[in-house]
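Data card: per-record layout.
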Amino acid sequence: MTYRTKFTTYMIILVINCGSSSIKYQLLDMKSDDVFDVIAKGIAEKIGLPAGILQYAPTGKEKIVLDVPIPDHKEGMKLILKALTDPETGVLKSLEDIEAVGHRIVQGGDFFSGSVLVNQDVLDKIAFCADFAPLHNPAHLLGIHAMQDALPSVPQVVTFDTAFHQTMPAYAYMYGLPYEYYEKYRVRRYGAHGTSHQFVAGVGARLAGLDINESKIITCHLGAGSSICAIQNGKCVDTSMGFTPLEGMIMGTRVGNIDANAVLYLEKKLGVTPDEMTTILNRKSGFLGVSTKSSDARELNELANEGDPKAKLVFKKFTYDIIKNIGSYIAAMNGVDLIVFTGGIGEHNSRLRRRVLENFSYIGLKVDYEANVAFAEDAIITTEDSKVKAALICTNEELVIARDTMHIVLENQE
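The structure for this 414-residue chain is written out next.
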């Protein structure tokens, strides 16, 4: 049961992040915004393929990995809930212990500037935005519907990756297309990773001793998908991803910025359809396309260390793209107080962080080389006398979703 005093809330929340063929999940016991326990977490993978995998890791106990067919998201949800309530290894007495469910949604268009309780209107708008995120939003809807079937009386909340970027001014989010395309088809820049950017900016500001409402922060979410965000006085003023997560820097399998005419030219030369070209741009390009070997930064790092020229080129381009984006946001905000690194690559690749930061000595940034080798732990990675601070912050999107879910459910109970 939800229990609330003047100071503390107790609520067990299941956080769901559905991909096209996977379901990541965390079960949290929320006592307050900053006091919580992760009870269990895991992932259901290879959904719809002949051989599925369910990983279930209860806190303080041994992780369980099951090879089991997972034909669809509904079955995946059933397996997750069964694992959580298993008489021997489960962490819940029954499904009634789950008091709310929070979902990550990649694309909310310009409909949502914050998290909301799920209702039919919200579902309709998520479906409308599926054209903007065809690999993500349909999967999110499957996850929501699966939870509605499994837990029909439990409130569900959705948190949007695009919501934080809704403060961008029109001159930052508009394309130079005929204005009617924006009015009719909502073609504009929306960004992504907003939940992560918002979280690490707040944690980084506190760690650096800054008032987030009176500071200029650039956050770099670097992973298989990467984006950079300019945050002025706590609000997003620009971000590198655009209408879809394809725009911006080179990524794991995404091309990043490209001349639209190059796309049209290749369609003609290759004789492919627009859908086939979309697959090339989203799934066959980026690290994978340039290296011709892998989309995984860890594998490419090993290849680069062995002298592979294409793997080296991938990292040189990736580093250059990051530097260029940071530099443009410094110019746009007329300065910067803090640069934050997060995400799978941002948190684990100290050499990349060093190579990026060394380019900003001209603004008084001084790298603390010893602190920079911190491995996946929050740290300031610049010297005490550095005029501009830099930080490594481990992102926690699940916590943001759980917080928002807790607050919205409580508000609707009053």
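Known properties of this structure: Residues 70 and 352 are 38 Å apart (CA to CA). The first strand starts at residue 3 and ends at 4.

See the next section for split statistics.
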